[in-house]
Amino acid sequence: MQTYLIVISFMVVSWIVGLILSMYFNKSNHALQVGGRGAWGKKMVSRQKKDKKKDRKKDRKKTEKKRIRARRKN
Questions:
Q1: Where is this region: Disordered (predicted)?
Q2: Which of 19-23, 25-29, 60-64, 70-74 has the highest mean pLDDT?
Q3: Is 35:41 a contact under the CB 8 Å cutoff?
Q4: With the CA atoms of 22, 29, 36 and 50 taken in that order, what torsion angle do they form, in degrees rounded to the nearest 10?
Q5: Residue 41, CB half-sphere, CA atoms under 13 Å: how many?
Q6: Cα–Cα distance, 44 to 37 (Å, whole number)
Q7: With the CA atoms of 54, 59, 65 and 71 taken in that order, what torsion angle do they form, in degrees rounded to the nearest 10?
């Protein structure tokens, strides 16, 4: 009987601590709830956009080089 009481009391205490912690983290990481991703997610997305821009620039340079070579041959 005593072990059951200890286990149940531990579960209740851990549940209350979990509730308090979740409330605290909800306040601090509000951007997570609003944007669907937190600051880290936003950083990752902006990094992906930058990478795409760089790739486009490289492609443009390559196509220009090919065009210049084609002009020289003709």
A1: 38-74
A2: 60-64
A3: yes
A4: -150
A5: 9
A6: 10
A7: -140
Give the pair of three-digit tokens for residue 37.
């991703």
Report d(CA 63, CA 48) in Å as an integer: 23
What's the pLDDT tens digit per position in 22-59? 777 666 555 455 555 556 666 677 788 888 888 898 88
The identity of residue 35, as a single letter, is: G
Residue 26 near residue 33 (C-beta atoms within 8 A): yes
- What amino acid is encoded at 32 in this protein? L
CA 59, 64, 67, 69 torsion-angle sign: negative
* Residue type at 45 in one-letter notation: V
